[in-house]
Structures are given as C-alpha cells and as structure tokens.
Amino acid sequence: MSSEEKTLTARGLRVEFGLPGGRVARAVDGVDLDVAPGEIVALAGESGCGKTTLARTLLGLERATGGTVAFDGVPLRYSTRALKAYRRQVQLVLQDPTGALNPRHTVYDAVAEGLRIHGISEDEPGRVAEALSRAGLRPPEQFFLAYPHELSGGQRQRVVIAGALVLRPSLLVADEPVASLDASVRGEILSLLLRLKEEQGLGALVITHDLGLAWSIADRIAIMYLGRIVEQGPVEQVLTAPRHPYTRALVSVLPRFSEAQSPVAEPIVLAGELPDASKIPGGCRFRPRCQEVASGNAAAVLHQCTGEDLKILGPEAEPHLVACHLDRSLHGDARMAV
Amino acid sequence: MTLLEFKDLHVTYRGSRGRLPAVRGVDLRVDAGETLGIAGESGCGKSTLAMAVLRLLPKSAEVSGEILLDGEDLLKMGWGRLRAVRWTGASIVFQGAMHSLNAVQRIGRQIAEPILVHEAKTTPAAAAKRAEALLERVGLPPSRARSFPHELSGGQRQRVMIAMALACDPDLIIADEATTALDVMVQAQVLRLISDLVTERGVGLVMISHDLSVLSAVCDRAAVMYAGRIVEEGPAHEVFAHARHPYSAALGAAFPVIGDPAARMNPGGLAGDPPDPARLPQGCSFRPRCAVAVERCGAESPELLEVGSARVSACFVAQEGMPVVL
C-alpha cells in the first residue's frame, strides 16, 4: 500500500464531544487508518466504541478535533463545495434500506438524486441504468419505475447501493450494511460488495459489530475499543490468531462447530460493558475488563498496563499490529518484528 | 415429561387481502427442562407461533389445532385460567426491551407487578424484595430497582426483561429474538445467563431467532420454519453444522463460522424472498429458491419425514439421502 493514490487516510484522528458538566467524551481517541481502492476494510467493535463517529468523520460529516483525514493525499476541507467534490469520490451507504428510500420516489428518482445534487445532467438515464446494473439489478430499465414497496429487501438495499455508485466513487463507506436484513438477503448484499471490489476495484470501509461479516468479505480488519484501534491486520491473522485480549474474547464467544476450530479454546465472556467515553481509563484502556489482568497472567507488565499509555497503531496493511503491553512483552514490538 | 406441545397448529390472519396463512400445521414438543430453538426469516410464522402460546394474537387471527401446556389446551382455556397461566405457567421475553418496559415506572415496580397480581398473599414489601433478588440473579445490582428504563443500557434492559419473565417461577420461557439487538459480548453474557437459568431452575425454553448459530449454541434441539411450516428438526448443533434441508443450509451459511475456509471471501446467500402467503407456490413452498429441486418438488408438497436418528426433514432430496447443498 505504498501508493497514496485514491487512498482514504486518517492520521492521529481525534473527535471529542463536550458533555453537560464540562466533561469531554473522547469518541475517537487517536486513530490511524488507511482504506485503499480495491480493498475492503472492516472496522469492528461494540456499540459505543466510536466506530460510527469515526466513519462520520472520515466522510466529513463530523469535524475532527485533532489529527487529519486525507483523500488521494489531499487533506479534507470543510467548505460546502470541497465536501461536495469529496463525496463524489467517497460515498456513504446507509444501514436500513427501508428508511433510506423515500416510499414515494421511484427507483429511478432515488438513484438519480445524487446526480441532480451534483448538477450532472449529461446522460442521466444512461448513468442511472449503469449504476443499477452494477448493483446487480438487471435489466435496469425494468426497475426504473418501481417503488420501494414493490421490491424485496435485498433489491431495496441494492437500490441504496446503486444510489451511491451512480457518482462513480472510488470508495464506499458502509455503516452496518446488512444489520437490518434477513439472514438469506445478507449474503446477497455481501456478495455484491465483494463483486464490486473484485470486478471494478471499488474499495470499501465496512463498519460492523459482526466479525462473521469480516470473514465473509474483508481483506483487513481493525478492532476498535473505546475510541482506539487495539488490533489491526489481515483478516486471516486477526481472526484466526487473535492476540489482543479483547479480540480474543470477541472471537471466543462466537458460535463454532467444534472446540478445535476456535483459536481460543474456552469462551471468555467479559464482565460488564464498555465504559463511558468520558471516563477512559489511563494506561491501557482495556485493563479494567482484561481477562489477562484478572487472571494474573499480566502480572509482570501490570505496572505498564496501569501507568503507560499505548502507542497509536500504525495504518500499515502488514504486519498484524496489537496495542497490548503483555503482547509486546511476549512478541516484542510488532513494528520491529518484521 | 412433555411441557409444551403443538398439535397441528394453524393460524390464519383475515385481512384486506383475504385470508393469509401464517402457521400451516405445526407439530412440536418441548419437554420440561429442555431447550428448543425455532429459526427462520421474517414472516415465516415463528413469532406468530410464540404469540399463540399465550393467546396474544390479534382478533383477526383464526387459530385451530391444540397447544397443550402441561397437558391442558391453552386454546380452550377461559380467560380467568389463562390469566393465571400467563407469567406463572409460561412467560415471554420479547426483543426490543425499550418498548416492552414502561418508560415512566421504576424497574423494581415493574418486576414486582406480576408477583403482586398473581400471588394474593404477597405484600408489596416482600414483592419488592423479590424483585431485588431477581435483579441480582440476572447480574444487575439490586440498587437498579430504583432506576428507570432509559437509565439502563440495552443489555441491562434485556436482563430486566428476563428478571420479569422469571418473577412468577414459570415452567416455560419463550424468548423471541431476545438477544438480536445486542452486541456480541453482551449477547454472550445474556445467552450464558439464559443457559444457567434453564439448568438451575429446570424450566423449558423456546428460543426464537433468525440466527441459527445462536440457537445451536444454546438449544438442545432446533426446528427451522419456512412459510408457516417446520421444514427441518433435529439436534440443534447437527441442524446448524449438517443441515438436511436446503433452506436450513442457506440459513446456517448466512452466519459463517470464522476459520471455515469455505466461507472465506464467500458469503453464503439465498436470492429472492419468502413466498407471499396469499400466493404460495404449488408443491414445495421453498422450490422457487431451491438449488437442488427435482421435478417432484413442483408437484407435491413434502411431508416431514425421518432422515436420520432424531431428525426429520420436509425435503424430497434429503429423504432420498442426497446432499442438499451443491
């Protein structure tokens, strides 16, 4: 990933929100992330970990309080015009197709809306047809006059995706693209994202709480906990040989066919819930819930876990990076290792 | 001992589009202390089945057949008897606890309410004490009794719903998508809680979900529903890992097992939608979406027949001993 061309990059990104009483929620608390064309990156974590705020900031819908967002090597500017131009390149795909589509608009109008907003009038029907057919709705003309209620759940989500594709973006940011869909439709939409990547080189950042989705379509995965990425790397490595205690716990509670198949033998059910983003613990932010700290396995590095902040993980596609003092004491600094 | 039994249950909704069959002849059994999972897509009839147990269906629903709870037909009960059975005989945990809880009443009061209604001898103070004990049992501090629903997280609210369902010591708990909206780790916590309670109290559990992998982790047996019928039933783990109906196979593949090389960069899926209940296809109702259908599937509707030890499938292909996935 040496080329910066058409790559979406975040460096040291921070987003803070003021709360009543003068407290500050650090929703995104130092994130480095790259999404290049032709790759699908999954950003996974629990509700409240900051993944949606991170996505909104990458799209320019939220302003960073620190760090930078850049696309194609150019830092994001927030004037209406600059954002409009940016969104032709990086498009958002919404989560719930029923909510995202206006029930009184035909498929044609829903897809053409983006062109109209951007003042592109040249060959509108041709571009709408192209977008529908790229989203797998073929022959496209047959769908032009259909209304959302006449379509299946899978077709509705395809229309939403066609609405994003019509501007010929180089990247999609999809927030939980299949969470509201039925089990069987889910596969249909994930296959579409995968095909868009393989056949047309479209990159995507997929925000999800579902690790199975990452296994189905993503090249890389970043695990987010309380505003930071705590583990990042190729999907095969992160999910079949997870190293951060939090990732290990997440992977361990997923359904499995047999004990032998899981990289973590016993399910690790963490107690409690994600702390408030206004009360991020010092040192390692995962320490209060960490099973290695609780079991005493981390005794030798405990002083670091309590007192020493971890470095922000780099955005490199390789190697597999882990923000954990215990892991560092066992494996050395991942960045030095390769 | 049989705790709950459905015998040839049919539920049909009367509406502006005519009569829509939602449940079309279901036979199922749950023994005391046993856990049964029911899986299927939206509209397959699984929630209608759950609502039918406590007679919570709207007036437009026509119900026929029998639902026996401890041998007594729920469909023939008078309202007084039915009221006694709700909460004490069987209780339901719904999805979306925010909508099921009263937003302006403290949690403790809401848990105590069914106790006070059903046990005339219990004093409000004793009921409040029991509510606190129940909160503790589901992993919440007893002080939470004084909280309002909006002060709790989604996972905590779902725990409150479980505490309410346990309030009157029912023999049967029905959980309808009880963990669907929760995060992975919170879901794991709630599933573990449900499993522990089933073992500890020996209650029967019917768990309804669209996620076959969750059912396989918690339940002894699983039944898969499609277009109002059971299409496969067997040991939950077997149904998930080695489906004997093409629909169960597709449903299972939708939630891949991480580490399974066959699922990597290969999302499982099933094109199309379930059939419109007003216009069910001829023959097998799954045929229009089926990849392994044979000629007979278009003409005859398959019965649920044995396809292995303790396993039944309503698929001609599986009944011939042929593979149900390509």
TrEMBL record, chain A:
Domain of life: Bacteria
InterPro entries: AAA+_ATPase, ABC_transp_ATP-bind, ABC_transporter-like_ATP-bd, ABC_transporter-like_CS, Oligopep_ABC_C, P-loop_NTPase
Presence of keyword Transmembrane helix: no
UniProt keyword list: ATP-binding, Nucleotide-binding, Transport
CDD domains found in the cross-reference section: ABC_NikE_OppD_transporters
Nucleotide-binding listed as a keyword: yes
Gene Ontology terms, MF aspect: ATP binding; ATP hydrolysis activity
Example GO BP: peptide transport
ABC transporter domain sequence ranges: 10-251
Family classification: Belongs to the ABC transporter superfamily.
Xref: PANTHER family: D,D-DIPEPTIDE TRANSPORT ATP-BINDING PROTEIN DDPF-RELATED (PTHR43776:SF7), TRANSPORT ATP-BINDING PROTEIN (PTHR43776)
Protein name, UniProt field: ABC transporter ATP-binding protein
TrEMBL record, chain B:
Subcellular location(s) per record: Cell membrane
This protein's name: ABC transporter ATP-binding protein
GO molecular function: ATP binding; ATP hydrolysis activity
Keywords recorded for this protein, A-Z: ATP-binding, Cell membrane, Membrane, Nucleotide-binding, Transport
An annotated GO BP: peptide transport
Xref: PANTHER family: DIPEPTIDE TRANSPORT ATP-BINDING PROTEIN DPPD, OLIGOPEPTIDE TRANSPORT ATP-BINDING PROTEIN APPD
Domain of life: Bacteria
